[in-house]
Recover the amino acids of this structure.
């Protein structure tokens, strides 16, 4: 499924990607395309297949079936070449405890062929990693501080594609804000960010496009605004005098009527509904704003219902 | 590759320093003990007194107290040398892949443009460099001990260079086996336990093969079968055949580990 139609190049292309471990099926035919310059959110609860997908993209594991391509190259076979253009933040802030943060950043920079990575200084400033902190051994760092160091190592060489597994884990709200600001600037320069998360409000705020994964399959993908617009939201309207012939605006379904209080389900554009309601004398109107969380939970409720 | 090599060696530095100090001390002590016991005569009395099982441990059934060099060389078969060397090799080999995968630290490194086989070679190189440092310290300990105790004229130090060369390829063989286990696993502790178990089993196969004729024919299965310092002291020269077997095991292990590591999924 292509998620944008801007004429940009596809950076990530997954087609029918499956991964099995013995009888267990971690991924079951994942299809997804991420275009250049996109901040892409990959949503799903624990065990849905987010980390497996990311590890296939980074060439750590080989897909059992299907194709995974980055920049048009095979994610497994060409991983060495691809790694020149990649920045990666793993799901765990695993670091060498005996190293200082400065040593770790320099070590990773050297492995990438950089003496002075172009973005290192700026990232250290904006993520508030002081010179004093950089000189301390990582084993003494808090989880949040380690995560900041890991973010710097992933971004310091200004990669064309940044893949991040739960990047906001353990970060305080101020650092999260700084990170999202950095990521927006990053995609503004034409780079691409692919991040997994289960913090839906953040993804909704930061990402332009999302994919929702459930049981190893991508169940929905597209621009955030488009997904939200297509989602059915709930409105409660209390009329002084209810409409005698019901409501006729497109996309409106009356879910329940209790005296003068009606519950409406609205899908698509809300303007025709508001126009029609304006004809009537209303006591109250409550509108549940569509959120990614609602959308996400909707998919998981469906799963629960289908599971019986 | 140089960065991984350097960083790995830095990571091993405490282990190398402590083990090297221990091996230096042991070599010094063994040399001092020879003189403190009363020299060659006392060593010959000790030889008569030792049970066959202990002689088998040192592969010294034909006697070891012919001269000071032979006495000291026989000690290089003692577990007091073999255990620290094997422990270092097993610990570093298991750390090369299995422990890095277990802790997740490998993810950041392998996301960099470095081929897996280069990563493994750099780790193996650091392990080899560590082994050379350890064995050099053991040699220096023997030399310093012989000078301090005044038996330097009786000890042929070039024999110990050959003994330690033999021990180096023995360590490479153990390292090769351990690297295969490390490449297969995502659990550092499990790798250490397995590699140690295999090494101890091989040591006892060799020990029993010397001591008990029904299992004599199985001796060739153990890497320790190809390590005989006393024979080097007695016969002179380098035991090329034994060295080739041990080197072959080490290189085959490294090659197998590389192929496995190159193809495996990096997941816990």
């Amino acid at each position: 499924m292509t998620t944008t139609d801007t004429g940009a190049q596809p950076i990530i292309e997954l087609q029918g990607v499956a991964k099995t471990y013995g009888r267990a099926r971690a991924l079951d035919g994942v299809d997804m395309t991420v275009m250049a310059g996109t901040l892409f959110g990959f949503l799903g609860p624990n065990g849905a297949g987010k980390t497996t997908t990311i590890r296939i993209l980074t060439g750590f594991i080989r897909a059992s079936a299907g194709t995974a391509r980055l920049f048009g190259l095979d994610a497994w076979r060409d991983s060495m070449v691809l790694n020149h253009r990649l920045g990666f933040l793993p799901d765990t802030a695993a670091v060498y405890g005996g190293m200082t943060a400065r040593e770790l950043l320099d070590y990773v920079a050297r492995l990438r062929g950089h003496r002075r990575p172009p973005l290192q200084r700026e990232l250290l400033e904006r993520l508030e990693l002081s010179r004093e902190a950089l000189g301390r051994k990582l084993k003494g760092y808090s989880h949040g501080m380690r995560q900041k160091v890991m973010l710097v190592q992933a971004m310091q060489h200004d990669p064309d594609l940044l893949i991040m597994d739960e990047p906001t884990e353990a970060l305080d709200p101020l650092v999260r804000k700084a990170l999202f600001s950095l990521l927006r600037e990053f995609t503004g320069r034409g780079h691409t960010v692919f991040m997994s998360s289960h913090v839906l409000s953040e993804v909704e705020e930061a990402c332009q496009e999302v994919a929702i994964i459930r049981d190893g399959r991508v169940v929905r993908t597209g621009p955030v605004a488009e997904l939200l617009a297509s989602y059915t939201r709930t409105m409660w309207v209390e009329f002084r005098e209810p409409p005698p012939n019901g409501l006729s605006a497109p996309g409106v379904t009356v879910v329940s009527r209790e005296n003068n209080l009606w519950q409406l389900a609205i899908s698509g554009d809300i303007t025709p509904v508001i126009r029609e309601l304006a004809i009537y004398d209303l006591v109250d109107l409550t509108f549940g704003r569509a959120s990614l969380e609602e959308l996400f939970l909707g998919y998981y409720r469906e799963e629960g219902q289908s599971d019986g | 590759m140089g960065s991984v090599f350097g960083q790995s060696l830095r990571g091993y530095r405490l282990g190398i320093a402590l083990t090297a100090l221990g091996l230096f001390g042991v070599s010094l002590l063994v040399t001092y003990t020879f003189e403190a016991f009363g020299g060659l005569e006392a060593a010959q009395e000790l030889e008569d007194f030792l049970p066959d099982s202990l002689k088998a441990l040192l592969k010294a059934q034909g006697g070891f107290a012919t001269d000071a060099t032979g006495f000291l060389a026989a000690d290089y078969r003692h577990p007091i040398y073999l255990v620290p060397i094997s422990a270092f090799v097993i610990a570093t080999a298991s750390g090369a892949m299995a422990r890095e995968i277990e802790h997740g630290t490998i993810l950041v490194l392998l996301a960099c443009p470095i081929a897996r086989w280069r990563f493994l070679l750099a780790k193996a190189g650091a392990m080899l460099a560590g082994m050379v440092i350890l064995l050099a310290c053991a040699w220096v300990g023997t030399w310093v001990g012989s000078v301090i105790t005044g038996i330097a004229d009786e000890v042929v130090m070039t024999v110990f260079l050959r003994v330690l060369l033999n021990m180096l390829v023995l360590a490479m063989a153990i390292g090769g086996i351990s690297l295969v286990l490390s490449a297969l696993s995502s659990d550092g502790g499990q790798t250490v336990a397995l590699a140690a178990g295999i090494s101890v089993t091989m040591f006892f196969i060799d020990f029993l093969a010397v001591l008990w004729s029904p299992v004599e024919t199985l001796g060739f299965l153990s890497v320790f079968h190809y390590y005989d310092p006393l024979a080097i002291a007695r016969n002179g020269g380098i035991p090329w055949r034994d060295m080739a077997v041990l080197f072959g095991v080490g290189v085959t292990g490294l090659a197998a580990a590389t192929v496995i590591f190159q193809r495996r999924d990096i997941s816990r």
